[in-house]
Automatic annotation (TrEMBL):
Gene3D superfamilies in alphabetical order: 3.30.70.100
Protein known as: Stress-response A/B barrel domain-containing protein
Alphabetized Pfam families for the sequence: Dabb
InterPro entries registered for this protein in UniProt: Dabb (IPR013097), Dimeric_a/b-barrel (IPR011008)
Length: 97
């Protein structure tokens, strides 16, 4: 199984509504992208200074499924509509579980 972890930092001008909309968009992905086996995500709890603002953890059966997700139109649309307008920084990692 491949685990994909995404850490995001929002722009200073990102509104609470935009942040909530981005989280809802992430939550809607499994119903649109069949390759996603599991998705959990949420806003940072602000327990550690300097942490990212948001994290998403997605599981896939294989690297090919992860690649299909990356190329999927629903994933691309979510990035363009909800993330790109408020994204300041992004970090990702994929590893075998």
């Amino acid at each position: 199984m491949v685990r994909h972890i995404v850490l995001l930092r929002w722009t200073e001008t990102a509104t609470e509504q935009q942040k909530q909309d981005a989280e809802k968009a992430f939550h809607s992905l499994p119903e649109k992208v069949s390759q996603i086996q599991k998705l959990v995500c949420g806003a940072d709890l602000a327990l550690t200074p300097g942490a990212h603002d948001f994290a998403a953890v997605l599981d896939f059966a294989s690297a090919d499924d992860w690649r299909a997700y990356q190329a999927h139109e629903a994933h691309k649309a979510m990035i363009a509509e909800y993330l790109a307008p408020i994204l300041a920084e992004r970090s990702v990692i994929q590893f075998d579980v």
